[in-house]
What does this fold into?
Amino acid sequence: MRTVFILGTAFCGSTAFARELARDPRIDTMGETDRLSPFRTWSGQAPERVSDSCRICAMAGRERDCPVFNPSLIAEATEAGLGGYAAVRRRFAAPIALDGSKNPWWMRQVVLSAPGLDPAAIILARLPWAYAHSDSQAGGYDLATAVVAWREVYQGALQIAADLGIPTLVIRYEDFILNRSAGNAAVSRLFGFTPEATRPVAVGLHHAIGGNLGAFLGMSGIDETAVRATQVDPGEAFKLQAQHLRSEELALVERWRGELDAADFAQVLSVPGVSETAGLLGYDLVRHLAR
Amino acid sequence: MRTIFLVGTAYSGSTALSREFARDPRIDMMGEIDRLSVFQPWSGREDAHIENRCRVCFMGEQTDACPVFNGELAAEASQGSLAERYAAVRRRFPAQIALDGSKNPNWMRSVVAESPGMQAAAIVLARLPWAFAHSVRDADGLDLSQGAARWRDAYQSTLRIVADLGIPSLVIRYEDFLMNRADGEAAVSRLFGFRPQPTRPAAVGVHHAIGGNLGGFVGMRGVDERALEKSISGEARAGNYENPNDAFKVQNPALRTDELVLTERWRGELTVAEFSAILHVPGVWETGRLLGYDLLYHLTR
It folds into this structure.
């Protein structure tokens, strides 16, 4: 039973990525477990981000019937403290469970408290311009301030994964979308098998805490009208559902490309450590700028 | 069949660590494959570093009888693409995991990029910057700052190439591995899928490897110790630093801090100003953090 922590920034595509991998029945997605209220002491999540109900079941109006995230689990986890993480993991039967919290400091606490966990990490990277654009729009920050958070999260992820001594794989979201066979080959080296999409994406089969609503569009059984009313980004689900997305198609769903100008690109890169961090994530920024 | 590349700097303990892992019959050490002459166009190794004979068999005076690194392999590996040549070497090692101790990330990039079906992974084997700078000063005459810059560039490059290739990697800090074997073996088991069990002897005839630190072979059954000593002193005369303590260190599963310190010559030979000079080289401290080092702890230990 392996637990694979997805690490990265907000807006890095973790929900859609985990949803896609969980089409293989050997892989379950647990969502952002650091949002569960029993773990707030360790996760440091703000009160408005804490959630104990399954987002997938909620989108079908069935959160009270969720067989995983229910009062019984919350009570068990509350009693056990951080040790309650094992109770959450036990609710997922697949040999690999994905924790989409993206939070390297959360991962550190969980791994240190659970020596038998068999953890691994996927650092899910997104281009600094994409993150800075999304974060500046969501939080009203300027691009330079936003990209500092990008640098801190990825530097933290690399340092913590090295410190903990856990196998780590870097997946660049854009490269994964543009070359799925190479992306799947990389994932197979960590999982020991190539994921096969044999399980439907449907309410009742998956259960997860939190996650980007846009990544759930197209899931069988959800109330699409209610989801679209929340102003989600429908590009998320589209990107991963397309097995052979071409560069020009990707560009269409990457709003930041059309909305940032040359001065914005330069501003992001002028922040100390940003280009170096991108290099550590395997990015060829020149290629992405020229694309 | 998985191939795990050990990547890092020289003097990072790769020979001794490989030898220790290969005591589990599910793990074979292949040594520094990039030294084989058939790979010189890709490895860029200097002529002086090329080696085609098995070092283990050589130390047991059985070079001509090596069943792996022999004329047959040389002929097979001298034809075809890099992937085909490398596969010919890998096939000679039957264990499910084979360790390539070349430590050269650019070599790993060439092999992995040209071998799409290879189940590749990497162990980034780290050594403290002071240890490396001290060793390279002794061996190559570089001043400590130049040595630290070389250390920084090697690990920065290693981390970038591992990320670019999309292969799982695990960072092992050699000093931490020695001082806490249980944690080190737990980390390795997460990459290997099992905890290494030392059920096979470290002996000539059992293992076959290209290159490697002579000190890592001390105590191996069947090794002609006098010939080994002669080789070590010859290497030392030639300016190649070799540390016979390497084998001692990994053979002791419960090495105490004070014992480890005894085997770390750099601790006694570097001054405070020299420690400081190494840390002042841009990027050294940050690179140490990326490798998971708590440098303050190691400074005050």
